[in-house]
Amino acid sequence: MDFYLGLLQIIGVHTLLGLSAYVVLLTGQVSMAQAGFYAIGAYVAAMCTAMFGLHILPAIIVAGLVTAAIACVVGFPALRVKGLMLVVATLAFGEMVRLFFFNFSWQVERGGELIGPNSAEGFRAIRFFPENGWEIWHVTGFIWIVVAVVMGALWWIDNTRAGAVLRAVGHDETAAQSIGLNLTAVKVGAMTLGGLVAGMGGGIYAHTVTHIEHAVFGVLLATFAIAYPILGGLGSVFGTLIAVIFIQGFLVEGLRFLGDWRSLLFGALIVLAMNFRPTGLLGERMPRLFKRRGPDKLELKEAE
Amino acid sequence: MKFSTLMTASLLALAAGPAVAQDKTINIAGFGASSGVVGIFGQNSGAAMAAAVEKINAEGGVTLADGSQASLVTTYYDDRCNAEEGISVLRRIASTDALVAVGPTCSNVAEPLFGILQAKVDDAGDTGLQFPVFTDVAIKGGLAGISEWVFRNTPSESTMYDSLFAWIRETHPDAKTIYGGVEEDFAHSRFTWYEVMRKAAENHGFEVVGEAQWLLNDTNFSNQARGMRRAEPDVVAISAHPFTTCGMLREMARQRVEPKVLVGLTSSSSLETLTGCANEAEGIIIPTSFAPVNEGAQSAAAAVVANGGQLDLHSAAAWENIMILKDVIEAAGIEGTDASREEDRRKIRDGLAALTEAPGLLGMNKRMPDGEAVKPYVFVDAENGKWEVLHNPGS
């Protein structure tokens, strides 16, 4: 049972990572900075609990807010570039963050031991959960409450004018600008929201693995982050969840017995999935089941 | 995928000599990187475990608390040298009937993995996983202190390199300077250069005249070799795994960097280095806790080759771990039933904790109170495409 609960934890934190990229993708921007935001959240939350004795809940909120603030600052210069240039710029930011933590050392003494980030050696003993009597199902429950809250909030946003604005910018920037939308504000807003979600996800991740180091937050993780919403489809937040279950639950865990062939099959299955479902597993439109009904439904309509 | 670690080496009734029919089995799980760049380490460990299990079963298996015999079985799980996957794999192993796990391969997996285990035994306030782990490969120093459920059979690199540089000082009195090359993004190689090799070299009077860094996936080493050539060091120490060690050695040969002494990382004293760059590696000196220098080591090496692997200092530890676990299982009075599983795991943990020394392939391995080991070692060098024992400090 512990194994399945552990797997649910992995799926939960990766869903948060994927959702952080989903928000930014809605505006048509491909951001490779999510791994960097995830790293910031991981280190900040870990410092809050391991170095300063905070509870996990305020710790991940602080991590989310700090990361959101950084994402906002990064968003202004980065989102002025488009397409491939944005990919390069956000990738460079992610590497910058990784290298920062590669060199970052700040330790305090707690219980006779030095605790904190120790540059290339990483950050050890982030043991809030076991040290405070949290059983594995407590941790899994906590993660999925956070995931549910974040998914619910994003789903709600998706069904409001804000969601329509994000999608409008994503579909056609020029048209969106012509109806008076402030592109920079929308894109930076999406980046900030993405940073908030990634920061919270990173904060939880650090506590589930108890040790973090710079190498974890590299290009591969950034690629996974962007792959989840693309593979799942941008129709709704549920696409990202489905993609995470597909990749982490089936490809990574389910095919573990295949050894070296797993990586090959992994790539092949993603290529196949993208060929048969080029708009993602759930497509670009929100499934009817999840659509909000009623007269106040907001849709983009052709101008008369 | 020829990897034989999907094997369930349940070698029932390989009845030889005194063996009796065995219905009971004791499961010892293995895990580590058996795919990816460092996959060869996990593949060799899996093969070594399978070979050791085969030998034990052929000799009658293990004796349980009630006097009955049980055969050993082992399954090897791949964690791809990924921390998150390593944790998931250990949770999976803990949910099976395995009584103990041998692994992991990578130090960057070991560190978080040990963190999810209960730190202090019987600490009711600590809900960490209570499952014994006996590490064979992940060699970065000091990790056993993270949890009292962790035991290691990895050699002490600080002891080995201190001895090596003392020996180099003695045998090459004219060598004054050293240049380090380090595979920067791998926990073991990075730790070994900065915390072990460099300090040992300085302690024995070598002046560090430069350092070159590269990454595990790098394929171009021209800048690093150029820096080395300019510094004209007497000794070059390469703290990297076989794949980039070979890349660096080839580039050094191309740029005619010819130090008086070439030192390598423990993990590179393997067949992969000789397969990849035997000519360029000629003369490289490496301390290792395994070499086929006696009958037992030679027979173990042959058995592992028969199982599709190679015996080196890492996989030799996997072989030794199985042999040590056999003794612990028999001494601890393991019952081997579903009902006694938790109790049996605890008995194995306590049995490993109580060991002060255990037989290894090169001699007696000392077990330290913190769960670490100090193992006998020799210095080997590459000669004509083979690893030859250059010096035995214990002799």
TrEMBL record, chain A:
It comes from the Bacteria. The chain crosses the membrane at residues 6-28, 35-54, 60-79, 86-106, 136-157, 188-206, 212-231, 238-258, 264-283. Its main location: membrane. One of its GO terms (cellular component) is plasma membrane. It is a multi-pass membrane protein. Pfam families: BPD_transp_2. Keywords: Cell membrane, Membrane, Transmembrane, Transmembrane helix. It is found in: Cell membrane. One of its GO terms (molecular function) is branched-chain amino acid transmembrane transporter activity. The keyword Glycosyltransferase does not apply. Coiled coil: none annotated. PANTHER family: HIGH-AFFINITY BRANCHED-CHAIN AMINO ACID TRANSPORT SYSTEM PERMEASE, HIGH-AFFINITY BRANCHED-CHAIN AMINO ACID TRANSPORT SYSTEM PERMEASE PROTEIN LIVM. This is Amino acid/amide ABC transporter membrane protein 2, HAAT family. It comes from Roseivivax lentus.
Automatic annotation (TrEMBL), chain B:
SUPFAM superfamilies: Periplasmic binding protein-like I. Keywords: Amino-acid transport, Signal, Transport. Pfam families: Peripla_BP_6. Residues 25-385 form the Leucine-binding protein domain. The keyword Transport applies. One of its GO terms (biological process) is amino acid transport. Residues 1-21 form the signal peptide. InterPro entries: BCAA_transport, Leu-bd, Peripla_BP_I. Belongs to the leucine-binding protein family. PANTHER family: LEUCINE-SPECIFIC-BINDING PROTEIN, PERIPLASMIC BINDING PROTEIN OF ABC TRANSPORTER FOR NATURAL AMINO ACIDS. This is Amino acid/amide ABC transporter substrate-binding protein, HAAT family. It comes from Roseivivax lentus. The lineage of its organism: Bacteria, Pseudomonadati, Pseudomonadota, Alphaproteobacteria, Rhodobacterales.
